[in-house]
Amino acid sequence: MKHVEAVLHLRESGFNARPISIKRRNNPNPLFKRGHVIRGALGILRTATTPMSAEEIALALFRS
Question: pLDDT tens, 26-41?
Fold first, then answer.
């Protein structure tokens, strides 16, 4: 985005790119805090004796 803005400034010096910049929205999950699910999944994978699919990891998370 910075490069695009620099080129637009070369073409038109008074151009303001702020109105078209990307807005990031953070919608937190009300059930889990940030990082809670990944820590649980990594804990399950650490104790696993065999490779697990995503479905098996999800089921193990629900069981725990």
Answer: 888 888 888 889 999 9
Residues 52/45, Cβ–Cβ less than 8 Å: yes
On the question of pLDDT at 18 being above 90, the answer is no
Q: How far is CA 17 from CA 2, 9, 21, 56, 60, in A?
A: 10, 9, 6, 46, 47
Q: What DSSP letter does each residue of 1-54 carry, written as one string?
A: -HHHHHHHHHH-TT---GGGSPPP-----SSS-TTHHHHHHHHHHHH-SS---H
Structure tokens at 64: 């725990």
Tokens of 55: 């479905």
